[in-house]
């Protein structure tokens, strides 16, 4: 595996930390800027929306640039956005920096994922995808808790400075190690690339990716609340549970990456069906500390493992006909799920008054993904032979 892929994972670690770190900085940010918690909480939604809109837009805008140029540009903009954010004196400026950072993050991830077939070759796309995505899982394990600790010790701005510092440091190896290759998409029209959505395997993987990630973030959003209800609000189990989820995510992505290049369709088929049982079992055992501890690891591993395999499938299938959009489709699908899951779970949790309902929402979303995948794999008719096609 080229060392450049691991460098990209470090950059994704910084970006993943930024995406999720506001959850631990809400109170201090609100107090410092003199706004409500709800107002600051919108920063997370703004970031997700920026990711959804930014991925296809930036992929098409910068997709014709050489990889080194596009990756370094997006990473530099991401870094500068956090410098400005750390210096922000009011909420409108901070919101603007979050939008810019999200668009740059989406562009970077979309370009990087689309470039993996060229960087590592078709035979290693799954493993390379797992390495890049592991940056997000390590962010959940280490980056987000570290950002929270920095915020508690030196204020929320210190977390922004830390993300900017990591981004600036990794910018150098990204500029040195990525190839200065000429664009390989010349002559490919935007309309032709969007047509890849009509390709059934791409469409199925994208929709399944939305539902799998919706399940993931429906459950993850309420994990801290569920843990506090079982172990006590003042217990150290809450940050521990979040870290365990991150460890499970890292394990799932790493394990899946070793086999998805050879057994991708089987992993997705079995994995999506298994996710239904995993989320349901998590809901059934969410009343005990042991159940929460064990199933937190299992749900993290299963959810991110299947999600990583779906990303690799989208990139592998779409790369030839949509070289600029392949990574953007994967990025957009997962972030749509990250928006829809918490919103749907929030409605259900408010209605029933029980955060465990979010886990049942995860099971329902996973069931939708499983039905789509199973229907596609076992419901397709064999392709007509040449003779049959000619006869028609």
What does this structure look like?
This protein has helices spanning 3-20, 26-33, 37-62, 67-87, 91-120, 125-154, 156-177, 190-194, 200-221, 223-231, 237-284, 289-318, 326-352, 357-379, 386-391. With 392 residues, the protein is mainly α. The protein starts with a helix and ends with a helix. The chain has 15 helices and no strands.
Helix content, binned percent:
over 70%
The SSE string, one letter per element, is: HHHHHHHHHHHHHHH
The count of DSSP E runs of length 2 or more, i.e. the number of strands, is: 0
Distance between the termini: 47 Å
Structural class: mainly alpha
Dominant shape:
globular
Query: C-alpha Rg, in Å?
Result: 21 Å
State the assembly state of the protein chains. single chain
Low-confidence stretches: 182-187, 382-392
Average residue-wise pLDDT: 83
User: Into which percentage range does the β-strand content fall?
Assistant: under 5%
Query: What is the number of helices?
Result: 15
- Biggest beta sheet attributes: none
Quick gist of this model?
The protein has 392 residues and is mainly α. The chain contains 15 helices and no strands. The longest helix is centred in the middle third of the chain and has 48 residues, at 237-284.
Topology:
Blueprint lengths: L2 H18 L5 H8 L3 H26 L4 H21 L3 H30 L4 H30 L1 H22 L12 H5 L5 H22 L1 H9 L5 H48 L4 H30 L7 H27 L4 H23 L6 H6 L1
Key attributes of the depicted protein:
392 residues; mainly alpha; 15 helices
């Amino acid at each position: 595996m080229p060392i450049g892929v691991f460098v990209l994972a470090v950059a994704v670690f910084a970006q993943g930390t930024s995406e999720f770190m506001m959850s631990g900085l809400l109170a201090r940010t609100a107090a410092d800027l003199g706004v409500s918690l709800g107002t600051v909480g919108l920063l997370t939604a703004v970031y997700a929306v920026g990711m959804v809109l930014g991925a296809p837009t930036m992929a098409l805008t910068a997709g014709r640039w050489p990889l080194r140029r596009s990756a370094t540009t997006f990473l530099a903009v991401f870094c500068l956005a956090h410098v400005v954010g750390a210096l922000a004196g009011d909420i409108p400026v901070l919101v603007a920096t979050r939008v810019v950072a999200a668009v740059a993050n989406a562009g970077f991830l979309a370009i990087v994922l689309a470039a993996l077939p060229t960087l590592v070759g078709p035979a290693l796309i799954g493993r390379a995808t797992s390495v890049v995505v592991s940056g997000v899982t390590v962010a959940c394990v280490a980056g987000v808790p570290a950002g929270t600790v920095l915020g508690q010790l030196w204020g929320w701005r210190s977390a922004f400075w830390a993300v900017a510092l990591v981004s600036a440091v990794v910018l150098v190896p990204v500029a040195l190690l990525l190839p200065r290759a000429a664009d390989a998409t010349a002559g490919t029209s935007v309309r032709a690339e969007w047509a890849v959505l009509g390709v059934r395997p791409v469409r199925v993987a994208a929709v399944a990716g939305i539902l799998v990630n919706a399940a993931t973030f429906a459950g993850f959003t309420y994990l801290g609340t569920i843990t506090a209800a079982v172990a006590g609000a003042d217990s150290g189990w809450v940050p521990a549970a979040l870290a365990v989820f991150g460890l499970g995510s890292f394990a799932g992505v790493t394990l899946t990456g070793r086999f998805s290049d050879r057994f991708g369709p089987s992993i997705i088929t079995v994995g999506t069906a298994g996710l239904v049982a995993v989320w349901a079992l998590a809901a059934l055992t969410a009343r005990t500390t042991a159940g929460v501890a064990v199933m937190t690891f299992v749900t993290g591993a299963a959810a991110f493992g299947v999600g990583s395999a779906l990303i690799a499938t989208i990139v592998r299938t779409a790369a030839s006909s949509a070289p600029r959009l392949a990574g953007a489709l994967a990025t957009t699908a997962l972030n749509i799920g990250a928006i829809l899951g918490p919103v749907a779970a929030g409605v259900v949790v408010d209605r029933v008054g029980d955060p465990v309902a979010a886990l049942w929402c995860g099971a329902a979303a996973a069931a939708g993904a499983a039905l789509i995948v199973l229907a596609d794999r076992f419901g397709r008719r064999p392709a007509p032979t040449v003779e049959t096609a000619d006869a028609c």
